[in-house]
Write a structure and sequence with these properties.
Layout (H helix, E strand, L loop, with lengths): L10 H10 L4 H12 L6 E5 L5 H10 L4 E6 L2 H7 L7 E5 L13 E7 L9 H10 E12 L6 H10 L2 H4 L14 H10 L2 E15 L2 H11 L10 H16 L7 E14 L4
Parallel strand pairs: 1-2, 1-4, 2-3, 4-5
Antiparallel strand pairs: 5-7, 6-7
Helix pairs in contact: 1-9, 2-3, 6-10
């Protein structure tokens, strides 16, 4: 699914993500599924479920007569998610371009929460999800806005543009593939979706100190924040990013201001 490496994840990063997501990705996901509207008895596909926190919440919404199938390409995250599995909640290692065992038009709702910006190729995965969605079903996407990079993203790019690191840019696979709201609208329509609603909202996060900000970025990127660098340079770049972040430290912590795009689209009910 992502073009970032799936091999930089570690048990420690996966565990950190499980705990840090409660105050960040899970909250955003609850807003997303609230806008989709998920009814009891619905069959739902969670693409890029991470450690399964949002899928667990949605399983409660669909109830015993519904079903949630949640996938993620990271085995360590699925290992944690499996602890949440129930009779109406199933997890598997898979991604948006796969899902070959899922039947056409088998889901009432499909959503991607904090996932879409990791997809390097976007149109074909969207077409694949369109295939899996029932006629009249809904697709929901919550993703970071291309037009509103956060402070840590800007500092990361600034540091990695220095001569010591530029030689490794050709093997760097950790860039986010962000989109604007207009680009996302076009992609959804090109994939066959209609009735697209789009909102852009401020997305502010607060970290206690530079180390906390870096740990969250590393866990959210499954080890790809600086994973393209040799170990010695990785540590050096990490220190330089932390030093820059220190300049923005306040008694409340370090605040990162960005924006989140939330899109809900439907599969047409008639040709």
């Amino acid at each position: 699914m992502p073009n970032a490496s799936l091999f930089n994840d570690t048990p420690d990063l996966a565990d950190h993500y499980e705990h840090a997501s409660v105050d960040r990705q899970l909250k955003a996901g609850k807003l997303l599924v609230g806008r989709i509207g998920i009814a009891p008895g619905a069959h739902v596909l969670d693409v890029g479920c991470g450690t399964g926190l949002l899928a667990e919440y949605v399983a409660g919404l669909v109830g015993p007569s519904g079903q949630v199938f949640a996938v993620d390409p990271l085995p360590l995250r699925i290992d944690i998610a499996q602890r949440k599995a129930t009779s109406n909640l199933t997890f598997a290692v898979d991604d948006a371009s796969g899902l070959k065992l899922c039947a056409r038009e088998s889901f009432d709702v499909i959503y991607l929460n904090a996932v879409f910006h990791w997809l390097s190729e976007k149109l074909e995965p969207l077409r694949n999800l369109h295939r899996l969605l029932k006629v009249g079903g809904k697709l929901g996407i919550s993703t970071v806005s291309k037009d509103h990079p956060t402070r840590i993203q800007r500092i990361q790019e600034q540091v990695l543009s220095q001569p010591a690191y530029k030689d490794y840019l050709s093997v760097r696979v950790s860039q986010l593939h962000r989109v604007s709201a207009d680009e996302l609208t076009r992609l959804l329509r090109d994939a066959g979706f209609e009735a697209v609603t789009m909102t852009i909202e401020p997305n502010s996060t607060l970290h206690a100190n530079p180390e906390a900000a870096l740990r969250h970025a590393e866990a959210s990127s499954f080890g790809n924040l600086l994973g393209h660098l040799p170990l010695a340079l990785r540590e050096r770049a990490r220190v330089e990013i932390a030093t820059e972040l220190e300049r923005y430290l306040t008694p409340q912590g370090i605040r990162h201001e960005g924006a989140r795009i939330t899109a809900v689209a439907g599969k047409r009910t008639a040709a």
